[in-house]
Amino acid sequence: MFDQAMARIAGRFKRVEPRATARAFVLALLSGVEQKNCWRLAEQAGHARPGPMQRLLRSTRWDADAVRDDIRAYVLEHLGAEDGVLIVDETGFLKKGTTSAGVQRQYTGTAGRVENTQVGVFLAYASSRGRALIDRRLYLPDASWCQDTERRIRAGVPDQVEFATKPTLAGQMITAALDGGIDVSWVTGDEAYGQDPGLRALLESRGIGYVLAVACSTRVQINHGRTTARADAVADRLPASAWHRQSAGAGAKGPRYYDWAWIETGTDGHRHLLIRRNPHSGELAYYLCCSPRRVPLSELVKVAGTRWCFQAAKGQVGLDHYQVRHWTAWHRHITLALLALAFLAFLVFLAVLAADATPARTADPNRPARSTYPIDLTVPEIRHLLGALLIPANTSPRRLLHWSNWRRHHQATARRSHYQRRLAAPSTG
Asked: Pfam families from the xrefs (predicted)?
């Protein structure tokens, strides 16, 4: 199955060598190596040096966007279902320097504060069969990057790339997915995207429903459009009978129950303000909803509960483990990580199918009550099995010492370069 997945993108590489390197790269992303940068991936793959993998990301001729399209088709074929939902989200990649494409001090939810970071906007597909990332965009800040020609050239930012807000990038990815054959009825996302009227208008023009989070200060139409009010003011006036406890889907610790209320905000029954209340803390969250047809509250709740977690992407396939600065290299690393994630998601789906096909097991009265059957295979467990079964270990003492020696020589060269640059710089003290 892994060979079938790699065959999807094989034609994007015109030569055998980069094609083999791409295969080794993705397979190493699926391995148990802790830091999935080119050095560690090359060592895991059995290469003598990281050069081939570094060239794969930087200079080898292949189109990362074309591979992205192949991944999207792969996800649609294996995970596509009638209940599919698109999820727009973003994540930060913390950096120390100032030369990585798009890096600047900006807020990121990864750290929960303003940090020196790159921000990637992502599109995920989720259905009853599974979920996977299908597209990515690197956010390029306006003043510090888009208007700095010299900085753009050093980071390899293409001339045609212009400033675009994060909701605009999300709209571009949604449009590409719909034009590429993804058939969904809903899009969901957090407040950064729900607050953008342009994105909402785009979805409505395509006949796609949405459940998008918004701020409590968002004004909505009430009383059949005759008046407007803040979302939190509307929530304050709701009677106890307006709230309904429903599950937003299964979580790690069981069903995620919240109290939900909805208020019609239009005159056609297709627009609503959806309000979620935590039954323990009382914390409220608000969503603007629009549906091409009349739907029950339960369907809006289901869409609102659909979410993507970047922790799995970062921890399992090293989405954020890269050590690249160039625009092209960033997109290539992320794209190959998306392929690794899609393959894992497909394996999880197959594992669930296998578990469902297993005959029902009856309880044995002679066994202790606390004895239970194992849970279904998870993404971490499947990746662990892949590492043990498919990926050859290259851990001979000679190879380990070779890579240790190579890394220390490279680090010594980098240290000398840093010292020389700092000693040559004029003192500002």
From this structure: DDE_5
Q: What's the CA gap between 251 and 257, in Å, rounded?
A: 10
Quote the pTM value.
0.88
- Pairing of the two strands 85-94 and 186-189: parallel
- In a 3-state reduction of DSSP, which class is residue 70? helix
Q: Is residue 241 part of a domain?
A: yes
Confirm if 247 and 274 have CB atoms less than 8 A apart: no
Alpha helices by DSSP H, listed for 106-254, are 149-155, 166-179, 191-194, 197-205, 231-236
- Which H or E element spans position 137? strand 130-138
* Residue of 168, 180, 171, 170 whose CA lies nearest to 72: 180
> 200 Cβ partners below 8 Å, 6+ apart?
194, 210, 212, 288, 290
Answer whether residue 340 is part of any domain.
no
Dump pLDDT digits (tens) for 15-57: 999 999 999 999 999 988 888 999 889 988 889 899 999 999 9
DSSP symbols for 247-273: EEEEETTEEEEEEEEEEE-SSSS-EEE
C-alpha to C-alpha distances, 263 to 6, 194, 196, 292, 299, nearest whole angstrom: 48, 17, 20, 17, 15
Residue 245 lies in domain? 209-291
**How far are the Cα atoms of 96, 240, 286, 355 from residue 246, in angstroms, in the given order?**
44, 15, 16, 27
Q: What would the DSSP string read from start to end of 77-134?
A: HHH--TT-EEEEEEEEEE-SSS-STT-EEEEETTTTEEEEEEEEEEEEEEETTEEEEE
- Residue 368 CA from chain centroid, whole number: 42
Q: Residue 137 has which token pair?
A: 């965009």
**110 is a domain residue:** no
- Identify the helix (H) or strand (E) that includes residue 343: helix 327-357
How many domains does the structure of the chain reveal? Answer: 1
SS3 427: coil
Dihedrals phi, psi of 44, to nearest 5 degrees = -65, -35
Backbone angles phi, psi at 410, to 5 degrees: -65, -40
Between CA 290 and CA 211 the distance in angstroms is: 7
Measure CA 229 to chain center: 34
Residue 25 forms part of a structural domain: no
C-beta separation of 314 from 320 below 8 A: yes
Helix (H) or strand (E) holding 186: strand 186-189
pLDDT single digits (tens) 310-349: 877 888 899 999 989 999 999 999 999 999 999 999 998 8
| Cα maximum dimension of the chain | 80
